[in-house]
Amino acid sequence: MREPERRAFAVVGKNARKVDGRGLVTGGPLFVADVDLSQALIVKMLWSPLAHARIVSIETSEAERVPGVALVMTHANTPPTRHTTAGQGFPEPSPYDARMFDTKVRYVGDRVAAVAAETEEAAEAALTALRVEYEELPAILAIDDARRPGAPIIHDEADATGIYDARRNIVADVDIDVGDVAAGFAQSDLVVETTCETQYAQHTPIEPHVTLASLDAEGRLILRTSTQVPFHVRRIVAQALGIPVSRVRVIKPRIGGGFGAKQEVLLEDVAGWVALRTGRPALFALSRAEEFVSSRTRHPMRVRVKLGATKDGLLQAIDMEAVSNTGAYGAHGLTVLANTGSKTLPLYNKAKNARFTGQAVYTNLPVGGAYRGYGATQGYFALETAMDEAAEALGLDPIAFRRLNAIRAGEGSPIFEKLGEGREGVPQTVKSCELEQCLAIGAEKIGWSAWRGKRERSGSWVQGVGMSIMMQGSGIPQIDMGAATIKMNEDGSFNLLIGATDLGTGSDTILGQIAAEVLGVPLEKILVTSSDTDVTPFDVGAYASSTTYVSGMAVQRAAEQVREQIFAVAAPLLGGDRQDLRLRGGEVVGRAGAVSLARVCERAMYETDQFQIGATASCVPTESPPPFLANFARVAVDTETGFVRVLHYVAVADCGVAIHPRLAEGQLEGAIVNGIGYALTEEMQFSSRGRVRNPSLFDYKVPGALDALRLDVALVDSYEPTGPMGAKSVGEIGINGPIPTIANAIYDAVGVRLRQTPFTPERVLAALDRAGVGAE
Amino acid sequence: MIHLTVNGKERDWDALPGDTLLDVLRREGITGVKKGCGSGDCGACTVLLGGRAVNACLVLAAKADGAEVVTIEGVSSDGALHPVQESFLEAGAVQCGYCTPGMVLSAIALLARNASPTEHEIREAISGNLCRCTGYVKQVEAIERAAARLRGER
User: Fold this and answer.
1) At which of A235, A265, A294 does a domain end?
2) Residues A13 and A103 both lie in one domain
3) What pLDDT, on a 0 to 100 scale, did the predictor assign at position A4?
4) Which among A205, A505, A706 is the nearest to B124, CB-wise?
5) Which of A292, A375, A554, A628 makes an SS bond possible with A336, Cβ 3.0 to 4.6 Å?
């Protein structure tokens, strides 16, 4: 589709009703656990009480005698195959360092043993009856202790693969540069260096992980599961359990949010094993506390950024170094780390000299995983803090300084090619970039010139404004694949079958819109079926901001092929030249007249040269066009208590054409509010022995409706020529904004830099005290 | 065994010792009531108990004996959506939908006692319903639209 045609969109760019909306708003039985569970065994896990220990023995006989217990699982009676729980493309860039059950535990909350029983009570009783003898080992509970000489080795097993340096607890190592960084700093008039640290945080999808496993009449394993990656689940479960992929079917029904936490195989292997061993359905559902401790977290990181610029404000060099805490297992360890550099450094391509180095290290703490933003979030905190410091030192307005150095349409960055998904990337020229518009609109909406530097006081409260910019990507180029199948029905409707995974984002709806647009029908005529490995074509799943761009292009291509088939059938009916045919309003329209799609399908199904009108198409993108975002925040800081309130947050995005503007806004709004929580309140806290102290939504504070007040999101006019209907991604980028934006606004208000998240009253007060600006 | 009127139907319900209202309802197929935490922190299990929005996970089943309960399944009638449900769909306030039943019920309880709530009152009314997808912007808008609709303005 060419750019001029977009003004004529009939379905794309409109706020259609979500295709699953009615079922959701009426509380239909759409989620994993909403089916009849009366025959299901209940699976419960015994989690490690110790941060690091060898399992000497597990005495199961007493547990097995508990009435109602069907199966007790330990390392002794389950497959020992090393694999990764990370739901990534094959071969996964994460180490094979996990087993279904291991002879060692590596964090408080690690798997020890599991039971399946008729009732929850029986399962709990059986867990209590398990006798485990541990040999406790010294534990690593801080990122700085992981690489110390003589540190305990967390993955000392002989059969783990893909670990960069297991003896030093280093999961992954990245070291790339472009140009000559030392020369860049040497020619700089100004060099600033800043180090920022981020905390342990959890996704908290409102539906915790849940899997229902059962066998069909032929003994195949059916996994109904809350996942973002059904096809990866099928492959990894088959691998872990030692059964062929063909013996597993994964169905993702509606799921209650994911945010990356569900890009992981956490329950399916165990529930599946129970079903295979017992022949019974098995339900494995995490409690909220288990979700906090034993699912996945955002990798905490320490990121150091050094910037060099000449007096005129042009960046000469950027040096970024990251240390990432991947916890007890290396899931996503390499790729999150690599993204910290690859999704941030190209933004400031005026710096011809750039370097990214980093290591991801094991600790005996909860496991890092995919989390919306995926490393970029951590990187932007340090980068955008350093940019703010440099702007100030140069005497430049922070907006102007960023404008001067940010990438523009028609430009590339050598980083794109040097650093990709944990390996070399793909060269790319940015084709759409409306950052200028985003900045102008955002500055206007926040009232930048009215508030900046004014430090308006009200009692002990002081106001300030801050800003930041960022980019992300749209899928993983030359790795991700999405596929779509479309087939036609005789009433002129179409089935759209997609492996893509709607985790609440609305991707079923927007993919349906893309098909409807090409086929010239209203959205109601597109019947969307997604995420069933027996029914839908392959798709890597919902991650890396890929669905709209990658799966969307697959849908567009499939629809275009179907359109050609329709024209071939219709041409003899309409006479004239096939080139003149168009699809519009449910009809094939030609110069000589029109014929309904229903008539076309009838002819193809029942009359002449019969065949099923239908096509399957795939997309493996050759590039990953970045969406862009400008963020602005006005905050008030209480100099007496250290409390920070976000009074107004503005985010203006370039996501290409928004297929469904309201859903695109919703992606940004949700990501930003999540990011505000990450900036201000959300933090997993640990005891001195590595136990999570606050595994509840009472003690771990995610924003509620009263915490997120004035939030303005806007989408600018943009068109990505390589994307379906001009679209690129929007799913992740918003979460990167709040931390640096709020930090920079706090600085504008009270002149102190916060370099450790979250910005709790204690930390703000301590910073004020150090700077001597706190209220007495 | 407890006696409940659920969505207008009065009957006896099986209840085990220690069961919460959430357990009882879900076990019998009223699965629009979601479980998100089991400790009253997320609001996914919100139901109307005697017209008030409460967390079903905090109500011991025995305590609810004799009560009148409305769940999301009882909100639309004869296939027609409640104005709050209509507004949620129109405003784009539904993303994953897991918090939606509870959020809709909290909104209905609010609008029953306050036909013209302010934005702050709306936010207060849904402050016990955590949503991780939306950022609350479109839910607040949806409830404002629903209030106008119920007042006959749209």
Assistant:
1) A294
2) no
3) 54
4) A706
5) A375
Chain B residues closer than 8 Å to A259 by CB: 132
Minimum Cα–Cα distance from A701: chain B residue: B41
Q: For the domain that residue A541 is a member of, what is the CATH number?
A: 3.30.365.10
Domain range enclosing A209: 32-137+204-294
Taking 70 as the threshold, does the pLDDT of residue A59 lie above it? Answer: yes
List phi, psi (to 5°) of B5: -105, 110
> With contacts defined as CB-CB under 8 Å, which chain A residues touch B107?
none
What pLDDT, on the 0 to 100 scale, is given for residue A1? Answer: 44
- Six token digits for residue A168: 């030093």
With a cut of 0.90, is the ipTM above it? yes
A373: left (phi over 0), alpha (psi -120 to 50) or beta: left
DSSP assignment of A395-460 equals T--HHHHHHHHS--TT-B-HHHHH--SSS-----B-----HHHHHHHHHHHHTHHHHTTT--EETT
Taking CB atoms and an 8 Å limit, are A666 and B95 in contact across chains?
Answer: yes
When divided into structural domains, chain A yields a total of 2
CA dist B25 → A133, A216, A286, A374 (Å)? 41, 28, 20, 38
What H or E segment, with its residue span, contains residue A297?
strand A297-298
Question: What rounded mean pLDDT belongs to chain A?
Answer: 97
d(CA A636, CA A430): 37
Cα angle: A673, vertex A338, A625; to 5 degrees: 65
Chain B partners within 8 Å of A15 (Cβ)? 92
For chain B, positions 46-65, list CB contacts with chain A under 8 A: none
- Asked if residue A19 and residue A102 are part of one domain, the reply reads no
Mutation target to probe the A interface, by most A beta carbons within 10 A, among B7, B27, B132 is B132
- Report residue A370 as tokens: 């995919």
Q: Tell me the CATH number of domain B2-73, given options 3.10.20.30, 3.40.50.1000, 3.40.50.10490, 3.40.50.880.
A: 3.10.20.30
CATH number where A265 lies: 3.90.1170.50
A556 found inside a domain: yes
Task: Give the 3-state secondary structure of residue A503.
Answer: coil
3-state secondary structure A744-775: HHHHHHHCCCCCECCCCHHHHHHHHHHHCCCC
Q: Which CATH class is domain B83-150?
A: mainly alpha
